[in-house]
Amino acid sequence: MRKTAVVGAAQTPFGKLYERDTRDLAEEAVFKALKDAGARPSDIQVAFVGSGGMDPTTPMMIGQIALEQLGIKGIPITRVENACASGSNAFHLAWLAVQTGMYDVALALGVEKMSTPTPEQARMAMRLGGGDALLEGSMGLFPPGIFAMIAQIYMEKYDCRREDLAMISVKNHKHASLNPLAQYQKEVTLEEVMNSRQVAYPLGVLDCCPISDGAACAIIASEDAVKRFSSKPVWIRASVQVSGTYEDLDDLRPDTTQRAGFQAYEMAGVGPEDIDLAEVHDCFTFAEIMHYEDLGFCNLGEGARYIREGKPFLGREKPVNTSGGLLAKGHPLAATGIAQVYEIVQQLRGQAGPRQVEGARIGLTHNGGGFRHGDVGIVTVHILER
Amino acid sequence: MRKTAVVGAAQTPFGKLYERDTRDLAEEAVFKALKDAGARPSDIQVAFVGSGGMDPTTPMMIGQIALEQLGIKGIPITRVENACASGSNAFHLAWLAVQTGMYDVALALGVEKMSTPTPEQARMAMRLGGGDALLEGSMGLFPPGIFAMIAQIYMEKYDCRREDLAMISVKNHKHASLNPLAQYQKEVTLEEVMNSRQVAYPLGVLDCCPISDGAACAIIASEDAVKRFSSKPVWIRASVQVSGTYEDLDDLRPDTTQRAGFQAYEMAGVGPEDIDLAEVHDCFTFAEIMHYEDLGFCNLGEGARYIREGKPFLGREKPVNTSGGLLAKGHPLAATGIAQVYEIVQQLRGQAGPRQVEGARIGLTHNGGGFRHGDVGIVTVHILER
Prior knowledge:
By secondary structure, chain A is an alpha/beta fold. Chain A has helices at about 20-35, 60-70, 85-100, 120-130, 145-155, 160-175, 190-195, 255-270, 285-295, 305-310, 325-330, 335-350; strands spanning about 5-10, 45-50, 75-80, 105-110, 200, 205, 215-220, 235-245, 275-280, 360-370, 375-385. The radius of gyration of chain A is 19 Å and the shape is globular.
């Protein structure tokens, strides 16, 4: 395996940015990532652009359109879509392209504009809905319902209370209050989460990630090429992408994250105990609790206790979602996976300001997308080291 | 560069297949490609699925959904979109994945369902329209108009008459009449093309590719893995993807194909004179004439003479679009690039039946997509050898 590093990373503000469009957001993220790396557009040899296509004004071939504005053209540019993990899929392919030895410098961009409400938008939500409009979607199974069902089974079987779920939202909003790029930079109380408008029991609206606009960009370089850039490299120790297997699901619980996490730890030669901080796919509060266990941060059934004991809070044992996560930083689909990388890069460089994890050396990102027969469609896990 | 081969390829019938849907088409193509290779679903280690998303019932994450039906799951699966070249983009990435050495067997699928007319469909056509709805699209510049403009300038400057354009359609329909998977298996006369309903002068409706449904699939293996399969390998000598540069366009003429062709010849270590047959992106009759020149089959300005002299007809010097091409075989966007590979594979194996090119040893595929500032957004060129 070729040694590779992130040499540039950037994120736009996330939020309902009604006055901005897909190109504008993409331009800002790419410009800032180039600047962060000290790179010129001509340094980029291959590019992958994640887009869920949620914006009705997004044309086909958005990759070329978004990058041409900044003079990145002529090179192979591919748009990828993989539901909520479109961004980390693009990042994984940029890494894969460098692994061939044919390219030394690759760019990954993720951009999504979701706040423009149109009939198309509503239909796209349906399309996204249960993962498969003709299967889960036809039964009215939207993501909140799916996660609520898994949560209910889990809460009957293990020591997990409604309050534990709410605590995840409290934590991530607290972290987001320290992140100037987050959608909601405001703390919420346990009572506010518990009393928030119910979406699908046990999940209230403050247990669900919002509708967001935003973009994020990362530039990857091979070891040889790292010195071309002015930034401090953050090494990619593992890049893993898996799909669902849709079989033998115990308690409806998807096993995609466990498989991806296992492969990533093996590739990086580290274990969960070596991870100093993580950005985890908290599309719903319950999901984060489940993923503590899936990623080996605690044992099966102990996820609720993990948050109850405060271990994933900033300043504690293993901070999770210091950026605010999907719940509070926001979740513009294809931007999310790369924004997770941006957060870890900032942390490992010691540039995370008031939300800095002291002494952080190794960080993990976990991004999931789509549903199918009750299993998650795609999970990517990346392990980065300074 | 790792030596790789196509070990399985398949195509569904192309046409307005009202009774079939995206999954059904995908299933047929993948099933037949597996059968062609003598492969099991578990042999596939990584997959790329091209989809332009033209079907309003196509959900996100169509890659996993399409492949899961046949038991291909768990592995990394990525949906890619790159307008009319989405399929060859998927094929290129499957090849690239094998180049890393991390994978030995990769699958590329392209599937498109375009015949279901809905408001969404109409809007998608707009989206596709000028390549960029906010730029060319806003000026009413749809693909036929763009190609008609380039054709008019070309016809003023070079020896090219309306009849020469029409002859391309005559040739490709003649070839399609020998292809049981083609959308239009019926010859047309020069007069019929010349008198066909005008779309944008000089292009009539028989100068334009149709709306089509269909799917195609290819399985790629590294040299080491080739022996696992029962088929005769067809070697991939070059796989090239480029984007537009959008600058210094002479006579509005895109230079993407020239750049991609040049790189492909260099990678394969062959020249245009070594190509025995080619599948070329004949979205409009004029495009094929231009591409004869771009790919070096003849000199600049001599494309019309090339068809007038009959050289690209089956049985003559260098048959082009023996499958019937986009014009007569049909053009289900993301299926096209892989269907081109299927045709060349059939020919190089000597399995093309009544349209067999005798003694064919080296074949080329050329697939383009999208427009931006008058330049083509993406071009891929593949060179295959038996």
